[in-house]
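Need residues for this backbone.
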């Protein structure tokens, strides 16, 4: 077991060993993400040794995966100790918003406007849509980028930054760990990739 304190990987233990391990350019070890096995003998690696400086939670998660894999490697029959919970926020939602949806939403909001003055209508639309759609970061044009070394992204306006800050930062269920639907999705091994791609399972 090699201790790590989020600085750099200490590989001096390999100096007198006839072991060829695969390292990245950051001097972290390359392992199988599903088992944490290095592919060499019985060497498994987790935490900072494979990730570089990261969080304790990530190291603990690696440890759970490695413990299961090590037990299997040595022919054990340890009960599965960890099941990854289904998290709705991991599901991509880009496919749910289409151009025609945005246009329809804009026209609906427009019909509800309390005024017909163009400048006020645009202001109301921006305020309403700003709470729904993510603000697009302004950028220099391609032509302008060829003339200088300025930052390509010019930054949000003060109002756009305020509107973004007011948007909900969590795409998951408010019930969190108490959500029954999440528990069902975990227990029945719902595939997030199917949801993301709108695929339906093949008939048995």
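Answer:
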């Amino acid at each position: 077991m090699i201790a790590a304190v989020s600085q750099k990987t200490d590989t001096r233990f390999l100096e007198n060993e006839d072991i060829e391990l695969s390292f990245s350019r950051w001097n972290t070890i390359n392992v199988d993400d599903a088992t944490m096995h290095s592919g060499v003998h019985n060497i498994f690696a987790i935490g900072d040794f494979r990730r570089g400086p990261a969080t304790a939670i990530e190291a603990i998660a690696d440890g759970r995966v490695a413990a299961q894999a090590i037990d299997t490697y040595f022919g054990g029959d340890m009960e599965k100790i960890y099941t990854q919970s289904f998290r709705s926020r991991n599901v991509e939602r880009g496919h749910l918003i289409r151009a025609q949806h945005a246009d329809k939403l804009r026209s609906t909001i427009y019909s509800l406007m309390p005024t017909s003055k163009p400048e006020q209508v645009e202001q109301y639309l921006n305020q309403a849509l700003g709470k729904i759609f993510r603000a697009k970061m302004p950028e220099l044009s391609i032509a302008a980028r060829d003339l200088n070394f300025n930052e390509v992204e010019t930054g949000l306006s003060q109002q756009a930054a305020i509107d973004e800050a007011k948007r909900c930062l969590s795409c998951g269920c408010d019930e969190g760990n108490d959500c029954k639907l999440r528990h069902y999705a975990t227990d029945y091994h719902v595939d997030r990739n199917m949801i993301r791609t709108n695929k339906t399972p093949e008939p048995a």
